[in-house]
Amino acid sequence: MTELADAFGNADAVVFTAGSNGGSAQTTKAIDGDGLTRAIEATRHAGIRRLALVSVLPESWRERDLDDEVEYYFTVKKQGDIALSRSDLDWLILRPSLLTDDPGVGTVSLGPAEFHGRIPRADVAATLAELLHERRVNRQILELNTGSTPIRDAVTANVRASDGRPLAEQGDARSPGEQ
Fold first, then answer.
1. What is the C-alpha separation between 43 and 8, in angstroms, rounded?
2. 73 carries an active-site annotation
3. Of 70, 112, 120, 174, which residue is the least packed, with the fewest Cβ within 10 Å?
4. Are strands 107-111 and 149-150 parallel, antiparallel or unpaired?
5. Which of 78, 87, 94 is nearest to 158 (CA)?
6. Over the stretch 87-96, which tens digit does the pLDDT of each residue have?
7. Which member of 16, 72, 73, 91 is catalytic?
8. 14-55 pLDDT, tens digit each
């Protein structure tokens, strides 16, 4: 853990994007289970407060007949979401739809619950970058799919006020210097 914490250096945030992709149960546990647990511990040890996790939409591939290893993958991913959400870190969990290698389009649908579809990895990465720069989006689980909202606008729409409501519902309570 110390070696991993040292590797983080003076980072502002840690992003855990590793995934076994539903391989063997042993690989899934090592990467999606133990790997995330070590990342949470190392983040704390390094004195870094923010950890973002790229997880999986719970509905992914549910229309298919899934084998035991893929079901185990979903179970371990859910356990990881729970472990991070119960931590004392400034966490964020992003659950994208099925990832594709298509070029990004720069527009998404982002919120606490989204339909499962497909989304280019480039749009996931761009959304994650925007989320990391918007520190007011924290301690949330957000789902991500293709959509028509520009990424920056989609992220801004998920900024929450202290009472948990979107700022958009409160007339955007940001000060002029924050806009």
1. 8
2. yes
3. 112
4. antiparallel
5. 94
6. 999 999 999 9
7. 73
8. 999 987 776 789 999 999 999 999 999 999 999 999 999 999
Residue type, 56: V
Token reading at 165: 């409501």
| Residue type at 164 in one-letter notation | G
In single-letter form, the type of residue at position 92 comes to: L
Specify the amino acid at residue 148.
S
Q: What is the pTM of this model?
A: 0.87
- Residue 107 CB partners (closer than 8 Å, separation 6+): 123, 146, 147, 148, 149, 150, 151, 154
